[in-house]
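Case study B.
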Amino acid sequence: MNAKGRLSSLRYGQLVVGQTFGPFPYELTADACRRYAELTGDAHPVYRDAAAARSAGAGDVAPPPALTTVIFLRALGAAIDGIPPGSILAKQEFEIGEMPEAGERLETEMAVVEKYWKRERPYVVLEFRVRRPNGALAMVGRKIIIWPKQLSDKPEEAAA
Amino acid sequence: MTELSRLSSGDSLPDVRGRVTQETINGYADLSADFNPLHVDPEFARTTEFGGTIAHGPLGLSFIFQLVTRHVPNGWPQGAVLRATFLGPVRPGDELVARGTVKNRSETADGVRLEIEATCENHRGEKVLAATVDLPLKKSGERR
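Model:
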């Protein structure tokens, strides 16, 4: 269920390779950086302590790179109400770019980059590109998702 | 903080340990705005194949990230590529341990490149995540 209180019921066939969504804004606050670090028990001082962050050249507080998983999910929710119940997140990939700074307004684009059937299961690859205000990529991520079979009609040609 | 650029093939990184609770999952739901009842509604989750709530898949990734980030002075390993496979659900109460080993070290024009294999396992000995991290480093130990 996303922030709008909806569960996605998007069918596999409604996702089209090349389709893009966004950009979706995300305010990268120092509070979000600290909350994420506390939530995940991450004791690196640069994620919590201003003096430590400044001495490491990371602004007032550095963002944990894993915080981008939250940004991807927010974009996914905004784009397609999240993934439908019964979906399985099979794999996830990250290419770490420039470090964003707390206080920046980031923008995330989501794209459907690949769809395929494997072992009778429908897969979707979604790509997320998170950019800093200067346009530099902070993170590129991919989610490889097995879509629920009940929402997937296998094309005849794929079934043959 | 381990100086990563001094690691060789076969060396292990210090383990990362943590406990995931329902409060952790609820907090992650707040941050991500993903309130799927499978994660946050124990009553609903009991009726599913999982028999109870499970964490959002990406939550477990933070332990894999920490294997590397805790040794990077600014906490942001620019240029690194992480690829993870989800092997099983993380449940409230799970004690997780992430382990990493350098599988390959190669010299580059201005530094070294480490290929790290990592896993994340729960207290029942079940692997919940497997990952590789490709990590470029300057020889001095500074991040590129």
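Residues 92 and 143 of chain A are 5 Å apart (CA to CA). The remaining cases will be described in the next quarterly update.
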